[in-house]
Amino acid sequence: MDSVKERSVDEVVSTILGKYNQRHHLMRILQEVQSNYGYLPREALEKISQSTGIPLSDIINVATFYHQYRLEIPGYYIFLVCMGTACHLKGNQDNYNVLRNTLGIKKGNTSSDGLVSVEKARCFGCCSLAPVMMVVSRDGCERYLHGNVDIKETKKLALTYRSMASKKVRSGE
Amino acid sequence: MAEWTLMDRCCDKCWHTVEYPCKHFIRCTVEGPLCHESAECRVKRKRRIEELKYGKYGIKIKVPISSCTLAAGAKEVYDAVSKEVLSSGLNADITISGCMGLCYLDPWIELSKKGLPTAIYVNVKPGDVPKILKEYLSGDLSNAFALRADPEGIYKNYKVPLLNDLTLWSNQVRFVSRGCGVLNPESIEDYIISNGFRGLDKILNMHPKNVIEFVKKSGLRGRGGAGFPTWMKWEIAQSQVSDIKYFIVNADEGDPGAFMNRLLAESDPYRVIEGMIIGAYAVGASKGYIFVRAEKPLMADRLSKAVEEIRKYGLLGRNILGSGFSFDIEVILSAGAFVCGEETALISAIEGRTRPRQRPPYPATRGLWDKPTVINNVETVAHVATVFQVGVEEFTKYGTEKSKGTKMFCVTGCVSRTGAYEVPIGMSLSKLVYDLAGGPPDGKKVKAVQIGGPSGGCVPSNLLNTPVDYESLQSAGAIMGSGGVVVIDEDSCMVDVAKFFTSFTLAESCGKCFTCRVGMKLLYDILKNITEGKGSEEDLELLNELSDVIIGSSLCALGGTAPNPIKSTLRYFRDEYVAHIKDRKCPAKVCPNLVEYWIDPAKCVGCGLCVKACPTNFITGERGKPHSIDPSKCIRCSQCFITCPQGAVIKR
Amino acid sequence: MVKLYINNKEVQVEAASTLLDAIVRAGFKVPTLCYLKDMFNEATCRVCIVELSGGRLVPSCSYPASEGLRVLTDSERVLKYRRAIVEMILASHKIKCQSCSMKGGYCQLLKLSKEFGVEGIPVCAECPLYGSECLLNLGIACLGPVTIAGCDAICTKERSPCIGCRGPASPDDVLEEGIKTFIKYKINIDEVVGISELFWGSNPLTQTIRKLFTNLHEGGRV
Amino acid sequence: MSIKVDFKVDKVFGHLELQIDLHGDEVKTRFVSSEDLRYFEHMVVGRKYYEVPYIVSRICGACSISHFLTSVNAVENALNVELDEEVITLKEVMHKLEIAQNTAVHLYFLALPDYLKVRNLSELMSAKPDIVKSAMMLNSLTLQAVNVLAGRIVNPLTYRVGGFTRGIPKETIDRVIKTLDRAEKLAEALSDLILGLDLPRLSDSELNYLTADPPTEYLTIGDYLVGSDGSRFRGMDYMQFISEEISDYSTTKYCRYRGRVFFVGPRARLLAFGERLPDYAGLIYDVRKELHNPFSNLKAKAVELLYCISNSKAVLGGLKEKNFSAPKEVRVRRGEGVGIMEAPRGLLIHHYVINDDGVVERSNIITPTVMFSKHVEVAAKTLSEELINNGASLNEIELKAAMLVRAYDPCLPCSVHLIVKEGDSRE
Hints:
heterotetramer; A: 173 residues; alpha+beta; Glutaredoxin; 2 domains; four-stranded mixed β-sheet; 12% strand; D: 427 residues; Cytochrome-c3 Hydrogenase, chain B; three-stranded antiparallel β-sheet; 13 strands; 44% helix; disordered C terminus
């Protein structure tokens, strides 16, 4: 991942700004930056501000207001645990706790080895399969939805994705 | 070279191009050719339609690919099907379809073969695929769940019910969701042969005022929640004088528990876009936005693809079908904030800002970039398209005096048949919960039904005969909202439910106006105290009063409705609150601080798993002998309860 | 021009006016906090709510005046809600009057809280010693930082120390802020507690003060 | 013959009951306070010396400045604080203005209705609206003047033990003087009205009085007391001359001066030092003829009202722009001090013992009403005997007795310092 980052923030941002550069594209610009890095690096935000003339405070306002944006680098895989009504009633809170325990996350959202993150998410619209969790990769290329997850399944998923992540990271992706 | 499709020219005589469009293009694709007489061209089109319906080789396998089926493993099933077809050398078309709303059956596949009834197989596992295929093709339909259609009338031989005969289907009126689970959401041809774009075809010859008049006659009300008459909104926007007007479709479905918009847009995106074009024509908008939630990527994907496809054939863009009306659509990905479901916040989001603003001025007069803007819900515009396709009479046949037509409801929570059901407005809640969704599993009792998401309220079980329409629900303390129905059974604590919704709205409050930002926090703190056994009786009065203030004086609809769950649970489940406060007990044994964990020595086998799970090491006991928890030191993390394989840890 | 009725009084304003304009024109008053004429019209603080004839509550600072509208600026409901809103604002306001630049009688929040009888702001907020030295600075044990405002800081105005006759400022964080102030000015806490007992008697808060002082002081030293 | 007249006296400060009993030949009168116990003497024990004035000024809102200043004097005496001449002068002005304000209120609202044959203020309002108007005006003007000097109209703020907390700008002084100019005119009208009254006739049987000895002129603050018997003694020694006793029927104590019933107040002041007011010699000449009559307290008050206002004006006019230095640094030490002052109703004594930490160990407060309450009983007895002998009706007895009480202007809230406590060390 670091190698991507070294592909100069300037370069990435100017590519994106080549496509969108209006004030009302801000949300889209940030989405594109995030899909590049998995989060919004500070330098990128500063660069956007310089190039578009949108005040940095406005950019950060948007970046912190919407749930989709991350300001810190997440793990390779990100567990998005649905916290909608149906999922709440069917015990996704317990699943969330189990995930954190299994992955040994005490503080913040990311495991200490930086492989996997666990985040709470809003409804995916799959309430009929509650409880639901989505696993996405940092680059946004992979996306898996898991429905009707119970505690056993949660534990299994946690371990599976962790080993997948460590394999990918080791192979230098 | 790509395959010839219905959308392409049949021969050189067809002069339809995007630049010089033909007025009759839509009808021509199916009924055509209209501008010239050619048996060859006619046959060509007929054959193509046949192919689309039954597959090139007479066998068609449909696998639904939508978010919910994917979560249940449809991708694996799809792969298994392709593998099986490839390896067995079968000549069959594999197509995708949308979700038909019966999510508890996911993943399902639909098989059709000329001469055989179309059969639906449910809860399919990838490993079952070869067997299912073999059985079906050999004519053995006994393991099918239901038959979609049986044109030949031979289903009786198979003892498999017809889908239409199942209560969960016969009680529905599939009006707007008629294409869901039937059509291929990525094929414009599929849509066009199922009467698609006929509404658009019709209205381009009508005066915009007449279009609005038509909608007025249908009595359609907004399906987003508030139930504002659609025609009225359109008329206001239409009467504004402005160089540019906007038409926005709100697909930022943030209500936890509601997913009909996702379902519609994923399974039948063209219908949504057709309705949108009709609306834009009626109000004179020249630019449209579809605002889609980022958490629902497939929905955004399907909508963008559909927009591109439609634009490619000249149904969108400049001078649509030679009518002189120009309109284009951009799909915008929301970055996910519940408040964006509110009109003005949605507009802010599109403008690249945050937070709602005070209304009036309403968006219909001053909206996006201060221009007249109409914002409609996905389901509303899909209804518009359908109404224009099939006519007003078909629509007004259903519903009540004040609210016409049908509405989709997503029934989730503690019911055995979770899913989305489209029913006539005015059907009773109990019918929806029991007859359609099958009631709670394991014979449990329904305690309450939560309708309308975080802005709605709870209807207790004794009021389940309330008809679902805007007015009746309101008087019962709930709202129709977008139509999420969450069934709550005895195992849930209503105070906890209220706390959940409050924590949701608290987290989603944009923080702009005071009453919502601070008021919700105060409400949450009070509820938290109550669930921790620190409440006092004055708190209940305070909850009520504070709720009234927040409802009465908040800036946007989020704050104006956020205390509803508290108000309605207080109204119907006051005794549960009192139990938390007075007896310091949670009757449903949900609130951790009011629950004691205890190991039943009769059940405990002494495996020691709980000892490992306990983060505080206060579970003791020799291996092989019953363990015990030190209640004074237990932190009630519930880890032992979750871990115990014997079910020996008991909450009391 | 549009004609509307404020508290049943007829008034005419230009078409583009807000209710607030009309209310002012009609000679009535509505409190405002976030509103700044021609600048901010965000309607976030909600204290300027008024009641329309249908019972709807709207912020007058941003609601457009329209023909025939009937507006009540001080109905029972409006006053009740407004009071609740002021209470909420205060509850979430980080009260640091000692270091606040609004000190000296300019604090709108103080004005509002006094108007509605909502208590929580200490005397320091209204101690209008414009520019002149704080009594604490002279080493005099003035109870201003821990006493509820509402008296117009009449004692300190006369350079007499506050003796806490209105009672202790209630939320703990206000007390804490006050005690930090005492520590800053090196005021003897025994003296403070002694004076506070004069009017607060056996109120447990006097002991709270001592405890907070000990905590903060030790915390501060480490 | 047996007559019993028990009635609540209205138009006085606080709740007062006067009981007149006739059994055979003997008339018994009782001055009964039905106020609650207020424990102020005990309240100040254990408090720091600088808090005491704040506490005692709350004894009564009517003459809080007198209590405040007396207490300040006692503390300053105890701690040996030497004050600047100007500070004392300004204290005296504050004090005189309070007397003026108090007198105005008493004469207009409490005393005058009786003589104008109305029962209360609201009747007065309809009968003589002009009088009420000027009464209101005079009250408000004097209050304004007090407000400027004391920081507010009750419980002064501008003084801390050791001196004034702030100076007074010239323009403020000018404003006060202007206010007093207006007040003076109204006060003259009021004095004319009072001095022209036809008072009920009554001869004092116990013409003993006690008053503070002003070092200069009249109503200035000093350390000595003088009595009608000609003795002059230091305030410190008050206990040798004045004895406090507890009655079994009232929550007030009562006092005797050298074992005799006595009175205090304007009448006593005028009797002792009237000759020091040459400007009002004419008026005093007339008033003096009546001074043996307890009712004449009213007329003495009318003279004092004029004096207080004009004297305050003169003193203030003499003050240039004043920027007082901060209050004197007070060195805390063990000490005992007595403050004596002439409150509007008469002599007021505050007495504190302060320990090494500056904390009050013992206190004693004797208020005017306590001093003259026995005298009221005696005068009321004489009055009712006379009335009974003249065959007056019960109503008339009640009315006249009430008028008599009101002439003394008792203030019950300030008279109730009784502590019923076993082993009380005070004599």
